[in-house]
Amino acid sequence: MPLVPDLDDATAADLGRAVEALAGRRVAVLTGAGVSTDSGIPDYRGKGAPRRSPMTAQTFLTDEGARRRYWVGSHLGWRAFSAASPNAGHAALASLEREGIVSGVITQNVDGLHLRAGSHRVVELHGTMRRVFCTHCGQVFDRRDIAQRLESDNPWITVPENVKLGPDGDVLPESAVDFVIPACTVCGGMLKPDVVFFGEFIPAEKFREAEQLLHSSEALLIAGSSLVVNSGIRFVERARRRRLPVVIVNRGETRADARVTVKIDAGTSEVLQELARALPASR
User: Which of 71, 85, 198, 241 sits at a 20 to 30 Å CA gap from 144?
Assistant: First the structure.
C-alpha cells in the first residue's frame, strides 16, 4: 500500500490497520471541525484553537444587543467563511462516495464544504450557514440575499483584510453601535441563521436521517472530531452495539479513543487521501 511520505512508521501502521478494518465495507463518515482546518477554518478545540464563548440560543433570542453584535460578527466572518474552498480531505471523501465505498457523510460542520467538494449524501447535523430563517413565520432566505440587505442597510460595514475567522464563520466585532438588524420581509419577525446554536438540540428529523445513514452502513469512519459533542459519542455507541469497525482520524485525543478499532493521530487531509487510494484497490 502506498504511503503518504510525511507519515511516520507508527501512523503508517495505524493507517494499514484502518484499511484492513474498512476494506470491503460500506462506510458511514462523521466529520468535525478538524476536516476544515486545511481550508482555513479554525478548529474549536484543537491545538492552538482560539478561546471563545459561543452565542447561546437563549441569548440570541432575548438580548437585542447581543443579537446585534452577533449579526455584525457573523456577517464579517461569513464573507471570509464563504470564500473558503474544499480541501483534499473533502475531495477524498467525495471520491470514496463515487466509488461506492462511503455511504454518506454526517457532518458537525456548517460550512457546506462537503457538498461543494462533490459529496451527495450529506447530513448537516448542526445546520448550514447557507440559509437564514424567520423564527416567527418560518420563511427561509438565502444567506447571500441577507448579506446584500445587511450591506445596503449598513453601508459603513467593511470586511477586514485579516479577519480572525471563527469555526462557525463569525468574528468578534469591534463595534455594533447603530447596526441595523435584518428582519423578515414577509412578517417582520426575527431572523436566525439556520444553525444549531450552543444550548439548542439537533432537530429530531436530522438526527434520524443520520441514524438511518449509519444503519445502512457496515463501518464508521470519524474524521476531525474530538467527539466532545454528545451526538458524536451516540453514533460511536450505536456502531459498537452493532459490532461495526470504528476508525478515528484526529489530531489529539478524543472521547472514544479507547473504544474504537483504530485511532490514527494525524491530519485528516493526508489520511483521507490515502484511504481514497487504498480502499478502492483493496476490493
Answer: 198
pLDDT at 213 over 70: yes
Average pLDDT over residues 87-93: 98
Task: Return the CATH architecture of domain 9-281.
Answer: 3-Layer(aba) Sandwich (3.40)
| Residues marked as catalytic | 126
Beta bridge partners of 248: 222, 263
Question: Which three cell numbers, joined as nine digits, stand for 216?
Answer: 445502512
If one compares 165 and 245, the residue with the highest pLDDT of the two is 245
pLDDT band at residue 283 under the 50/70/90 scheme: confident
Taking every pair of C-alpha atoms in the chain, what is the biggest distance, in angstroms?
A: 61
What is the domain partition of the chain in residue ranges?
A: 9-281
pTM over 0.70: yes
Q: In this structure, what are the phi and psi dihedrals at residue 262, rounded to the nearest 5 degrees? A: -145, 135
Q: At 135, list the grid cell.
A: 423564527
What is the chain written as a DSSP string? ----TT--HHHHHHHHHHHHHHTTS-EEEEE-GGGSGGGTPPPSSSTTPPP--PPBHHHHHH-HHHHHHHHHHHHHHHHHHTT----HHHHHHHHHHHTT-EEEEEES--S-HHHHHT--SEEETTEEEEEEEETTT--EEEHHHHHHHHHHH-TT----TT----TTS----S--TTPPPPB-TTT--BEEEEE--BTPPPPHHHHHHHHHHHHT-SEEEEES----SHHHHHHHHHHHHTT--EEEE-SS--TTGGGSSEEE-S-HHHHHHHHHHHHHHT-
Contacts of 62 (CB under 8 A, 6+ apart): none
pLDDT-derived band at 167 (thresholds 50, 70, 90) equals very low
Other CB atoms within 10 Å distance of the CB of residue 8: 9
Residue with cell 467527539: 227
Residue listed under C-alpha cell 487510494? 277
